[in-house]
Structure formats: structure tokens, C-alpha cells
Design a protein that fits this description.
The structure holds two protein chains of two kinds. Chain A is α+β, with helices and mostly antiparallel strands. A six-stranded antiparallel beta sheet of chain A has the order 1-10-9-4-3-2, with no helix packed on it. A four-stranded antiparallel beta sheet of chain A has the order 5-6-7-8, with no helix packed on it. Chain A is built from two helices and ten strands; from the N terminus they run H-H-E-E-E-E-E-E-E-E-E-E. In chain A, strand 2 and strand 3 form a beta hairpin. Chain A is elongated and about 90 Å long. Helix content of chain A is 20%, strand content 26%. Chain A folds into two domains: 43 residues; 100 residues, 3-layer Sandwich (Rieske Iron-sulfur Protein). Chain B has a single domain, classed as Cytochrome Bc1 Complex, Chain C, CATH 1.20.810. Classes of the chains: A alpha+beta, B mainly alpha. At the A-B interface, loops of A face helix 9 of B.
């Protein structure tokens, strides 16, 4: 079929590179490649967004931990459902994560050694969450703990606080 | 055919002349080297394999058949895996009960489950052994460089298959192995925590994590393995056949 647009192949080949006239076919090739690229990029973005869940059916990060009188002075209490140690010292309350900072195993309070110990790789922490032994790179996290107006302890696991922060009751 | 003496050979020979055989294979009996080559080239499965091989590459000591053993273990895992899927629900806590049912209630369930589990462990061993063997035979050198890279991809797919399958029984061992493993991923700078979140579908090893590992284990990774295996086999013949050691080439 004769193409009215542009010179024939032989004539085009003799032109210097970069000077070649854009044919209708070239134009549609460029346009459709760009359209396919944009569509593909959009599909990738949508899919990546789809993979990331918006609603999680996981335990709530904020929870009530009962009244201060439930915890004797100078004690470490393990809350299994929340994976938190409630530590009551003579000064006040700490809420310390039970999740080992090494690879995420659940640590255990050993009253006989007065240490928090990890069963997986042998990290040991004192009751302030500071590392005493083992491969753990950081001390155990301290969570924000406060007293509600009703006089209950409230722990927020999304809020990490300094170990020096203590709830005085 | 002059050599068709046994009953099977005679039956096959007459079958090759039927219209049905010719419609499937597009040709009659392969009686010459040329028609035999054409039969290999024209078959979608056989065309991945070489038409002829050197005799020394068939000797046991040339390869110990490690690649073939890995491939047949993969086939065994596909078959037993599909059968296990008939009784397994990737849900909490049903997954654990299904695994218990497979062991104690389903007929031959414990046999199938152990074939799958032990086959998977054997495949990891054989794939590593295959890699070491090829390495010490200098099979990674040109012109086989690309196929070495495909092989490394197959090694990674094998390990990911093993790892994702490890969570599916949903017992304590599985739970803590995946907890520790995904926390190792979280140590990757910058990208680690997002990758862990997407892999688990959340922050903890829970329902979403089990379902995602199930889909990876049963669909995505096997498809990747089949694709890479096809390229791997095809490249073996394109790159000039198997590597045989220097001693064997004497």
C-alpha cells in the first residue's frame, strides 16, 4: 500500500540520523508504547498498594492493666495476652516489652535470678530492661504507662518512652 | 521396523502408523537419526533436552545425576503437595488441626506428609550438592555463566519454598521459626521493615501471614521454579551440554 505521508524507505535511509521524518506509524508506536508504560506503571502502583492491608485483626496496642494495687511493690508481672511486663519498683511503674530485641522471641521473668531471659539465643536483661548478657543489640522497649481518671493503669504499646520515665502512684 | 520383535515394540510400531499418532506428533515413526532429531525438536517437552549427548556425560561419576534427582524430587513435591492441599485449610487454628488429621485420621496421610516433608529436606541437600558439584567442575565459567545465575535463582526459590512451607503446620516450631526469620528480614537497612510488613500482611505472625505464606508456597514460588527449571534445562543444551570434569575429558 502506498503511504502518502513521508518519503519512501530508500529516500528516508539517505537522510542523516536525527533528521528522519516522523511517520504516522512512528507516531502511533511512540504513543502506544507510552500508553502501555503508563498503564503498566499504574497497575504496578495499584497492586503494590493492594498488597498492603489497611485493617489488621491484631491485639489492640492500648490496653487497661487493672489497678495499681494489683501489683505488689518490687514485683515483675507477666501479662501473657499483651506481651508486657508490669514492673513495680519502690518509685513507681514501668511497662516493659517482653519481645527480645534480638530476633523477636518472648522473654521470661526468672525470679530466682532476678533477670528477664530469652529462651532462643540466651539474652538476659535486668528488671529495667537493660541488657546483661547475650546477643540482643538494644535494651527491652519501655511503653508509655499512665493512670486513667478511673484509677486504672493504661499501657500504650505504640508509644516507646525512655527507661527513666516512671509512673509514680 | 526390522528390530520390532517384542510385543510392545510391535504394538508401538503399528500405533505410530495410525492417524491419531500422526495428528498428535505430526510425524510417523522416527527411523533415521534425522527423523529422531526432528521428533525431539518438535516435542514441546523434549525440545528442552539435547538431541544427543556425549557418552562420558552419562557416566554416574560425571554428574551423580544430581540435577535430575533434584528435578524428580521437585516433581514428587508437586504431586504430594497437591494431594496435601485437598485436606489443608490455611486458617488459624484449623491449619494445625488439619496437619494433625493428616497424621492420625486421613488414610495414608502421614505417608504423604512425610514424603512431602522429607522430599523437601532432600531437595535442599541435593540442590546444594548439585551447586557444589557444578562449582568444582568449573561449570560456572563461560559459556555457562548465565545458566549458573539461573541455577542460583533456583537455589533461592528452593530455599524460599522450604521456608514458606515451614510455617504451614502452624505449630510452635513453625511460629517461632517464622518470627525469628522475618525479624532477620527486618534488619535489612531501610527496606527491611516494609518487606516484613508486606510478607506477613501485618506486624505479627498471624492469619494474614499464614495465608500469604500459603499462596507463596503453593502458587507463586512453584510457578517461578517451573519457569526457571525450563530455562535451566534449555540452556544446558544451548551451552554445549553438561560440564564433564577434566579427568573425564581425557
Amino acid at each position: 500500500m502506498k503511504t502518502p505521508e513521508g518519503p519512501p524507505e530508500a529516500a528516508r535511509g539517505s537522510e542523516p540520523p536525527g533528521q528522519r521524518q516522523v511517520t504516522r506509524r512512528d507516531f502511533f508506536n511512540e504513543i502506544s508504547t507510552a500508553a502501555l508504560g503508563i498503564t503498566g506503571l499504574g497497575a504496578a502502583v495499584v497492586t503494590i498498594r493492594y498488597i498492603s492491608p489497611n485493617v489488621l485483626f491484631e491485639p489492640p496496642s492500648k490496653f487497661r492493666a487493672g489497678g495499681p494495687d494489683d501489683y505488689p511493690v518490687d514485683s515483675v508481672t507477666y501479662l501473657r495476652d499483651q506481651q508486657v511486663f508490669i514492673v513495680r519498683t519502690a518509685v513507681g511503674f514501668h511497662a516493659i516489652s517482653t519481645i527480645c530485641t534480638h530476633l523477636g522471641c518472648i522473654t521470661e521473668w526468672k525470679p530466682e535470678d532476678s533477670l528477664i531471659e530469652c529462651p532462643c539465643h540466651g539474652s538476659k536483661f535486668n528488671r529495667d530492661g537493660e541488657k546483661v548478657a547475650g546477643p540482643a543489640p538494644r535494651p527491652l522497649s519501655h511503653f508509655a504507662i499512665l493512670l486513667t481518671p478511673e484509677g486504672e493503669l493504661m499501657v500504650d504499646k505504640l508509644s516507646i518512652v525512655k527507661p527513666a520515665d516512671v509512673l509514680k502512684v | 521396523m526390522a528390530t520390532s520383535t517384542t510385543w510392545t515394540e510391535k504394538a508401538l510400531a503399528s500405533l505410530r502408523h495410525t492417524r491419531f499418532w500422526k495428528s498428535v506428533f505430526r510425524r510417523g515413526p522416527a527411523l533415521t537419526n534425522r527423523t529422531r532429531s526432528v521428533a525431539i525438536f518438535g516435542n514441546i517437552f523434549l525440545h528442552l533436552l539435547p538431541v544427543k549427548v556425549r557418552e562420558q556425560s552419562l557416566r554416574v561419576r560425571a554428574t551423580f545425576y544430581l540435577g535430575s534427582i533434584a528435578f524428580f524430587l521437585f516433581l514428587q513435591l508437586v504431586v504430594t503437595g497437591i494431594l496435601l492441599m485437598l485436606y489443608y485449610h490455611p486458617a488459624v487454628p484449623q491449619a494445625y488441626y488439619d496437619m494433625k488429621d493428616l497424621r492420625f485420621v486421613v488414610s495414608n496421610g502421614v505417608f504423604l506428609r512425610n514424603l512431602h516433608r522429607l522430599g523437601a529436606e532432600a531437595m535442599v541437600v541435593v540442590v546444594f550438592w548439585h551447586m557444589f558439584h557444578v562449582f568444582y567442575r568449573r561449570g560456572y565459567r563461560g559459556p555457562r555463566e548465565f545458566n549458573w545465575v539461573v541455577g542460583v535463582g533456583l537455589l533461592l526459590v528452593t530455599l524460599f519454598l522450604s521456608y514458606t512451607g515451614y510455617l504451614l503446620p502452624w505449630d510452635q516450631l513453625a511460629f517461632w521459626a517464622i518470627t525469628v526469620g522475618t525479624n532477620i528480614i527486618a534488619w535489612v537497612p531501610a527496606l527491611g521493615s516494609p518487606i516484613r510488613y508486606e510478607l506477613l500482611g501485618g506486624n505479627i505472625v498471624g492469619e494474614n501471614a499464614l495465608l500469604r505464606f500459603y499462596v507463596l508456597h503453593c502458587v507463586i514460588l512453584p510457578l517461578a521454579a517451573i519457569l526457571l527449571i525450563a530455562i535451566h534445562f534449555w540452556r544446558v543444551q544451548k551451552d554445549g551440554g553438561l560440564t564433564v570434569g577434566q579427568q573425564d575429558e581425557r
